[in-house]
Amino acid sequence: MRTRSLSVAAAAVILALVQPGIATADDPSTTVTFTVTTGALSMSVPASASLGSGAPGTTISAPIGPCTVTDDRALLSASWTVTAAETDFANGSLTIPATSATYSPGTVTTTGTITVTTTNVTLSNSAQTVVTGSAGVGDNTASWDPTVAVDVPASAVGGAYTGTLTQSVA
Question: Which residues form the signal peptide (predicted)?
Fold first, then answer.
């Protein structure tokens, strides 16, 4: 009987050594693994906005609606830059130059870990930095409701003027 007990104990030790991942009394541990998924850097902006109306020689301004950067890249050290560019405002063949407009990001609300800096700019046909994110860790978001203001020239002719504001994040 004693020989059988020793044989069963020896078989248990051999089985534990041969089968990886089975904890023994001498090593009661379990290795646990998982993967943190990553996503993309993206931006959402309003499809359209109306600044209202005003007479020649005045400034027409309004918030254009929420703009949001979503950084789902799950980086240890994340940064991003938002730029804005404006086309000239047109009413048929009549135009008001993009440089008659300004962009003011205003207050930024964030989630996660990100440091945000804003810059008020005079718009133009060339992209200019308006919001930057730095020192980001993991996933984060930043949202703001920028105000666009247009100084309407005293020589402006009445009518509806349309321009395209392009905001992008990289």
Answer: 1-25
